[in-house]
Amino acid sequence: MSTGQEPYDPYIPNSGAAPAGGAGNNRTQALQAQIDDTVGVMRDNINKVSQRGERLDALQNKTDDLAASAQGFRRGANRVRKAMWWKDMKMRIWLGIGIAILIIIIVVPAASHGL
């Protein structure tokens, strides 16, 4: 600023130091191109965030469905486990009764012949 020139103010037109279509216009065009690129990148980012949100919502719905399905599976598995336990117990009881009858059939005649 020691050269005697006034400070640059973009709102005050030049006093003729630069040509009308010169470096100032090129600089403005370059800045506008950078701004346009930045705006394009930001729009892409916003679209990606929106799509990510939609995918997260879909994933949340699938997770909820899977949790409900898992709970139903657990109930069904417990029901089957209890049914199989009762079936096993019935088989053991019948097997015990059969062995007891077989022992009675063998022991009673042997005991009556021995007396």
**Which percent bin holds the helix content?**
over 70%
Q: Number of DSSP strands?
A: 0
In whole angstroms, the N-to-C terminal distance is: 138 Å
Overall residue-averaged pLDDT value: 86
The biggest sheet amounts to:
none
Number of helices: 1
Give the percentage of residues in beta strands. Answer: under 5%
C-alpha Rg, in Å? 46 Å
Any low-confidence stretches, pLDDT <50, length ≥5?
A: none
What structural class do helix, strand and pairing data support?
mainly alpha
In terms of quaternary structure, what is this? Answer: single chain
What is the string of helix and strand elements?
Answer: H
Short description:
The chain is mostly helical and 115 residues long. It has one helix at 23-114. Residues 1-27 are annotated as: Disordered.
Tell me what you see in this structure:
The chain has 115 residues and is mostly helical. It has one helix spanning 23-114. The termini are far apart.
SSE layout and pairing:
Blueprint: H1 23-114
Keywords:
single chain, mainly alpha, 1 helix, 0% strand
